[in-house]
């Protein structure tokens, strides 16, 4: 399966992505984006093209009846509903993954629900998912993948999983400093990211995982995320030894993306100078579109009127704003009063396309 021809009549020289006994025809993972930006419509469409479609569980049930009273229960219902709906859309093609932030208060419950609903892959970041193997038995069909941004983090998680659980990763996602949303870098590193030799970091992570491939007699594929925009970017990271890529921002500007049309238009309208680093209540810096909301937060704290109990470590009386409310406002189309996470290359996006056309562009080059 060095290359393949799909029923949508386009051809790719890209190799397939093997994750244990699971195979995606294209080595392209659509990154998980919450709240509500990547749910079943987007993930199912990406899988239908032979890639890995990823659903974000972060407050995924925001539009479920009863969310204001019991967000935790609504999120669990929505996880199952969207995984099953994505499978229907995919019609047996590709893989369906789920992104679960390690910083979530109900992390364990989200993992269990995704596994029970038959997710092919759990991708976990926004903190180190130290106990992920405990929550996803090796005997089940679901594969596990940590997100790391440094060799140090990769070594730590692989060593810990091997020691505690006699287990290793099925896939590693390396997320660089050009990514959108929450970032695994300090503010200082991001302000001077041109000085970072991230290509070497990628090589170092690929090198360090070889010890665990030998120990567990299996391949651990690596995909690179952050700043991947076109086929030349894909070819570059593959030349470094990666097995695939994870792309998020470009999938926002598609007809199938689950976000409001005004959210998508905000991506189209954004220019390079409109994208900046913000501070998230998660405790990590993030990258977002500068708008009225960001300017308001810079001017002073926005008091939290209601807590949705989304983050494990969150003090509503101290955080600069409620991230749940900010992200829901944005995904529902209030693009001036909500938080719009995005990648560094969002300013290069100029039009709304379809998932099929975008996957074809990425596959063919």
TrEMBL record:
Q: Which InterPro entries match?
A: Aldolase_TIM, NMO
Q: What CDD domains is this protein classified in?
A: NPD_like (cd04730)
Per its UniProt record, what Gene3D superfamilies does this chain match? Aldolase class I (3.20.20.70)
Keyword terms of this UniProt record? Flavoprotein, FMN, Monooxygenase, Oxidoreductase
Q: Name one GO molecular function term.
A: nitronate monooxygenase activity
Function description: Nitronate monooxygenase that uses molecular oxygen to catalyze the oxidative denitrification of alkyl nitronates. Acts on propionate 3-nitronate (P3N), the presumed physiological substrate. Probably functions in the detoxification of P3N, a metabolic poison produced by plants and fungi as a defense mechanism.
- What name is this protein filed under? Probable nitronate monooxygenase
What lineage does the source organism belong to?
A: Bacteria, Bacillati, Bacillota, Clostridia, Lachnospirales
